[in-house]
Amino acid sequence: MALFLEFFTFELKYRFKSLSTYVYFVLWLTFSFLCVASESFGPIGSGNGKILLNSAYANTLDNVLAALFGIIVIAAIFGTSILRDFQRDTYQILFTQPISKFAYLGGRWAGSFLTTVFAFSGMMLGTFLGTFAPWADHTRIAPNHFWTYLQPFLSILVVQIFFVGSVFFAVAALSRKIFIVYLQGVALFMFYVIGVTVFSATRSLERFWSGIFDPIGLILFNDVTRYWTVIEKNALFVTWSPALVNGVFLYNRLLWIGVGVLSLVSVWALFPMSVEALTARSQSRRAAKAKEHELAEALPVRSLVAAGLPLVHQAFTSATTFAQYLSLSRLRLRNIFRDIPFWAIVALLVAFGINNGHFAGHVADQNVWPVTYLMVQAVEGSALLFLFIVAALYAAELLWRERDTHFDGIHDALPMRESTDWLSRLTAIVVVELILLAVAMLIGILMQTIGGYYHYELLQYFKELYVVTFPQVLTFILLALFIQTVVSNKFVGHAIVIGLFVLMPILFSFGWENTLYLIGQTPAYTYSDMNGYGHFVPALFWSITYWLAIMAVLGVVSIALARRGAEDSLRARIRLALRLAPRLAPIAIVFAVIAAGAGSWYFYNAHVLNEYLDSKARRDIQADYERKFKQYENFLPPKVTAVDAAINIYPDRRSFDGSVRITMQNKTNQPISQIHLTDQRQSASNVQFDRPFHLVSSAPRNIYSIYALDQPLAPGETITLTCNIGHQSHGFRDGNELPELAYNGTFFDSDFVPYIGYNRNIELDDPRRRREEHLPPLEEMAHRGDPLHSVNNVFFPFESDWITYHTVVSTSADQIALAPGYLQRQWQANGRHFYEYSMGSTHILDFFAYISARYQIRKETYRGPDGDVALEVYYDPAHTYDLDDMLASSRAGLDYYQRVYSPYQFSQFRILEFPRYRTFAQSFPNTVPYSEAIGFIERVRKPTDIDFTYFVTAHELGHQWWAHQLIGADVEGSNMLAESLAEYSALQVMAHKYGRDLMHRYLRHELDGYLRGRAGETRHEPPLALVQREPYVWYQKGGQILYTLADYIGEDKLNLALHNFLMQYRYANANNQADASPNRNDNPHPSTTLDGPYPDTRMLVDAIRAQTPPELQYLVDDGFNRIVLYDNKAVSATSQKTPDGKYKVTLEVQARKLQADGNGAETHVPLADYIEIGVFSGKKDEEKPLYLKKEKITEEHKTFVIVVDQPPTLAGIDPYNKLIDRNADDNMIDVTRQ
Amino acid sequence: MALMIAGLSKTYPNGVKALKNLSLSIGNGLFGLVGPNGAGKSSLMRTVATLQDPDCGSINLDGIDVLRQKDEVRRILGYLPQEFGVYPKISALDMLHHLAVMKGMTSSSERKATVDALLQQTNLWDVRKKALSTFSGGMKQRFGIAQALLGNPRLIIVDEPTAGLDPAERNRFLNLLSSLGSNRTVILSTHIVDDVRQLCPRMAIIASGELLLEGSPSDALAALNGKIWSKVVATDGELRTLETQLHVISTHLVGGQHEVRVYADSSPGGGFRPVDSGLEDVYFLNLSQQANGQLPN
Fold first, then answer.
1. Is A324 on the interface with B (CB under 8 A)?
2. I want to staple A78 with a disulfide (CB 3.0 to 4.6 A). Which of A45, A165, A602, B28 is the partner?
3. For the domain with range A963-1121, which CATH number is right: 1.10.390.10, 1.10.3210.10, 3.40.1190.20, 3.30.70.270?
4. ipTM score here?
């Protein structure tokens, strides 16, 4: 024991004398301090704006991240504690002493453990200090309680240190090689990061085993807290209770503590305490070596007379220099290739590449074609970190190799130039990187082949991997070489290189977004099959040139400062550098000139030709707009009734121009004397009215202008506004390129047309950002029935009701231009294509878009009961996979919607592909721009795959009814009238094609999406009928509620309710405007032009109530007006064979119903609900119902006895998750035979 | 071939004065450099081998300014450092070929002939394809010798070359060195004084960065003729007494008893008998005189 204490205290003393211990401590202190003190840093600070920054939840998550990034720190402390003896050969002395294994290993381990715990305790102090930072967001800092710090620290980090540390300790003690310790540290980190990425990519809903086997805790943490609401996040601890999410946290901790204990036991059992055993790699090998030496020494005696050496000739020409360079490069490469760690890296790269490549074609339950851009992204994504690791690792290894192997005495005295030597090092790393990139490419092609995709685009691989990515890797290599040249210690160099690598994204998120000072950065870019690298090319080219040239200058400096000879001091090296300067300076100057030139050109484009706005500046503009002009929000303007636009798109210049004529009508009962225009895009100019007017005020950037009419606009009277609109792209920007404009795939909407009045959508909505801008909380939407807002619709409040639309659009000769409306004529003039579209007198929402691309077209005619509809898909020639699916969905949707809702109001329905800079589909009147990233590359392989294309198409088609026929008032709840009903419509169309069973799988994702959405709520969650800006409520919850309602009351009943609601309230305020009167030139009487109310969710709920039987009315209330959650669970199920050959199933269930408030605080409510009870045969996920019945359940525990004909395998309560259940996994249970 | 070293001084950042105004001139043939550990031998050799710069002084090799025209020196230099390591997993053959290229041997046939000859000379032929990292200490030292002789160097600097060699290899190496020495400059540093006596027409003794003696070993020996006296003493006490009275230059253990050698112009009496002087006596005398603050003679 005394000896143990001796080792223990020695280890502690050693560690606490060492600077690194304090560096680690300060590192964690800084990390956790920033997590609290900066809103742009850390997972909590930059996330949901309502979660307390020093809550147990936040501390737990910060600790999990520290556990992840701390792997290397733990490896460094535990690994080196034992290896020290072997690196310094002190083991020879140590192990000849009488020391016990326990004292030696135990003392070293315990000392390391305590040191590591100390280092990581910086996390607690940092968070604590952060809460006192005056600039921190103190609305998110709770009073400090010690337990909220200590509990997460003990249960996450201390356990982690024990487990990871013990494993590293064991590996170090048994392998006695530092490189293996670091390699396994890096491997664990990589495996983990990539594993987590893959797991989240699959969007699996599995939450039990994934949590238990998570060695670090990211997935575990997500599994445990996934559905926690804000209140829970601010109050709860991640505890070791077996009741917390089925005890997943408890079991996880026990498992990994067990692994830690096992490592310690095995090191204790296997560690040999003798010099003999420690030195010998293996007895046989040692013997073989000894024998070899004996043989070598025992060779026949040779003459002692020295024979002369052959004459040689030396030449030192440039050819010699080149030969030297080749020989050195070859030697260095051979060194790398004969290195086991290198092959370990290659093996890891291949493994991750294959894995990621496999998932390039799988997202959630959705299958997509592994097109090249997805595959390159997958294999490059998995390789990139390795490429950087190789760069950092080998930059150091190669620069220090001569010194590490003590070969420098010979090497440095060789007659070679410093530049030859340096270039050979660079070449070796570069060759390795090129090979790794080729490996990544081959894996990509292999995985495409395995995935059944044979359209190999080698050029695209080459461009992405070698033209775009490689220069960035090269930049990093040069930087690493430079840093390793300047610093005096390899590991300090590593720390700086990694630090810089990590620092850049952090600086970016802090608002330092300028590519010109973020080392090695290039602006973000997206490859698109439609547009290639498109407009990103110049910015990429110049930023890469700029950074490469800067790094080349550093490279020249590295050559000058190269270590050569016995003296390493910087003074000695600078002396050498000065001697080399005359030769090297011209090269450095050339590169410096290139860097300055590229930098200046970049600056000119990004900062002079284009206005440079970082995200803070853009938020300032939004906040300014709100502060200055929100006062005009409820100022009643005339409403737009007609739009006539002539637009010329110049795709090759990413520009457009044109003019627009907007007809407006005073639909109030007051004269209007002012017209306000919001011009968010700075796209409008030369604003004119058809009567005398003057400009009253305009704002910077023309964002808001007020015009006064000399003669006020009388009620019912119309006025015409004309203006030029357009956007000219100049040069390139530092990121933030407009996604709307592309060489192939222009798609912009009415955003570029001035908005009449104040546009609420410009307001900042993130509470955190609003606080930062000192804005009050975002205004709530008006209550239903509010007189002012009820006469406006929710999409274009105070701007328009319905419009008629006509446009002429032109584009380049090789492209097709589209806009909503029927094609009237098309022609060519001046080498350009012209198209005229018109909606005639059909009313549409004031929502239109312009699209232009090189398209192929698939057309067919849908012959329906209410007339023909032309179905058209405009697609990129490469994307033919899903055209049939889209058309099938359109047909099925038209069938269903026309049958149950109303006739389709248009005679065409068009789908238009656009580049994947934006990933959505959007429903304009009879026109749906659809991103190439969703839907166009989908493939359905297995019957269980979800046909997302079919679903999205049906959803967008549904909007032609729910939005384009019926639109709600500008009050709370109205968004669901469009989105939930479109979602419901699509779910039904889907169900009719794929059957109800598959829909349950899909709805599980909807349920998960809803529960996660509410967990991330930054304001407060409303009930469905009062939804404001919460997509997870109007999509996922709305779809689920309506689908379940149809299941309970009957699909026909619900559809009838929707039909009645639609027919009563559609086209509100369409018939009171000028274009609706028989004679357009008449100014109708004001009373007939006054806007009436739009429908809201009260009318929808009433319509549904009317079709709902009394005993299910509670479902309508729960679904629309409350936030209701169930906690249903199958407790046990047994079956007995009855004498008549049937099976008697005894099923014990538990049912609870909870009501939540907007913050997620839950209260139990009494049960009197119909819940399905089911018994199934077959495997899980392929089960077939033997019995399924909705039972009225009034108490929490209930036992059912059910007799079925076939052998049962599963039974449960609400087995299909039709109700919203926070723990949806435990509703079914295996049936035990008795 | 003549190497002129003048006024060389070097102080390391930690304050150690490695060379103190050292001047030497070294001509063709083998030149032995002896001195105790830390005398500055390696510093001097590294400086000549272009691996470090002195604080002041100059070195001239047949008109080449060694301190400035380093590349010129390196082209004609063969250097074996006192301690060196090797790259792992590279064979002796590959490494020598590589170093031959580095030394400007552009003709591959010449390169092969030289490398093969050197491998034979250093008795590494049979293990030439083995990785250097598996070599024993002696084999590694022989590899070091082989690489130093690559490319027909006219200036050869070998720092403690015979350390770690068995007697047979040491003899062979010394033979090889002396066969090379006639038309080039070979600087051999050692603390085995016998090596110098056997090989070197000229030698220098340095200690604490200063030159104690420069000349031919035979001259140095002649100067001591008849001035070295020896006596075997039985006890430590007796030895201590002698040390205070006489100029003791060295003691050796012979059969467990001390053989004391003193320097005196005439017999110190009391059982001392005259003995032949050896080079070691020269060495120790110079060191002890320096330690006593006397000028070397």
1. yes
2. A165
3. 1.10.390.10
4. 0.91
